[in-house]
Design brief:
Strand content: 35-45%
Helix content: 25-40%
Structural class: alpha+beta
Radius of gyration: 17 Å
Order of helices and strands: EEEHH
Number of domains: 1
Shape: elongated
Oligomer: single chain
Strand order of the largest sheet: 1-2-3
Largest sheet: 3 strands, antiparallel
Number of helices: 2
Length: 85
């Protein structure tokens, strides 16, 4: 009997405003058969610090978050936060 635990990023989604959502799937396997699977979801906003973010997710963020996308996101947030203008 051999138990293994693997964690992979199995979904990455980019929204119209540049938000990035990703899901990590953790699988417990015994001799090749899946015993259990759990999910953890995370979200990132344009321009957010990517320290500690999985490399494949950070690569998508770096491609998606152009200066224009980050500026548009910040302008949108500023419109909806009282006292930020």
């Amino acid at each position: 009997m051999s138990l293994t635990k693997t964690t992979i990023i199995d979904q990455i989604t980019v929204t119209e405003t540049g938000g990035v959502f990703y899901r990590e799937a953790t699988r417990i396997m015994e001799d090749g058969a899946e015993l259990s699977k759990t999910y953890h979801r995370s979200s990132l906003t344009p321009g957010q610090d990517l320290t500690g973010v999985p490399a494949n997710v950070a690569a998508i963020c770096n491609l998606t978050w152009t200066a224009e996308v980050v500026a548009a996101y910040r302008a949108q947030v500023a419109q909806h936060v009282p006292g930020s203008q």
